[in-house]
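Fold it.
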Amino acid sequence: RHDEWFDQFVAEWGEANGVTTQVDHINTADIPAAIAAEISAGQGHDIVEHIASLAQYEKSVLDLTDLVEEASTRHGEQLPMAKRNSYNPTTNVYYGFCHGYAPDPGNYRRSLWEGVELADGPGTWDDLLAGGARIKSEQGVQMGLGMSNEIDSRMAAQAMMWAFGASVQDAEENVTVNSPETVAAVTYMADLFKQTMTPEVFGWNAASNNQLLVAGRASYILNSISAYRTAQKDQPEVGADIFFRTPLVGPAGEEAALAHGHAVFISMIPNYAKNPDTAKEFLLHLVNNYAQAAEQSELYNFPAWASTVPDLDGWLDEDPYGSEPADKLNILKTANDWTTNLGHPGPANAAMGEIFALPILPNMMARAARGEQTPEESVAQAE
């Protein structure tokens, strides 16, 4: 629905401004390589966009400081998380323009968790393991946290590490992945796999956990609301049973219960762009009309400038798209508090962008889960 709206939105803006426009939709797994190919060729789209930071392309794209400043002049402060996902504090460059994001809550089947005395879903990683293991053994329904070469698996691994007090880098950008905390997170994931999952999680793509939940075969996944919206239409009984939780609390406490945005919409203008000023005007037009983006995405898109969607909290309290109860999504009103940037507690730098495009973190989890290495050995290999 959003894509259909967006294509028309772009076309109407082009017609109104005498600009020829073309939008190309590319599978999310193929986007980084497609952008790299255009940069290498020195020609292509005036605007390229991915759902995670691609800071490694900073030297190949324009500094968009002027664009961010103009949007902030019009709409107030950009969300700090949006800035951290698109700004390099070392070079003082905005390599991207983050116009919005999709929160990444836990999605759980209430009826299944009621059966293990957790009707409001798991609140901690301990709850997830204990309750998920019972659901699998007693009700025959597995869990869906991927450990494969795709973006959802990478986000799940990252969120788990943060909850255990681990991180890929520290605030000063030193590599810190080989720590007792990371070993504890990998050990936990191995236990979670053995007690709650099946080997299919090692071969998933970014849609697999959605499909498992919509089919009624998952007790819990980490995802945006997209799987739920699909279930509302295609499997209404399953959709009615899907509810949401904020990120799970782990050994590091509530402050470390964080998530990367399930999608962080970051537009970039390559150095080769033939119409950079026109591209900037379009991105300002998009932010000016972000209420439409939020509405037409069925509340998937949250704004990077909060003032642009003044009705968002009201929509989350009373979902215009038929949630029962109507306030099912109101847990997302706190998403700005628990959504953080790629590379936390450091910045989303070029190294983190490159690492996040690779399967290093899910492979680290998978080797231990399959028993190929001890958690200590697998973490050392990741380092």
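The first strand starts at residue 48 and ends at 50.
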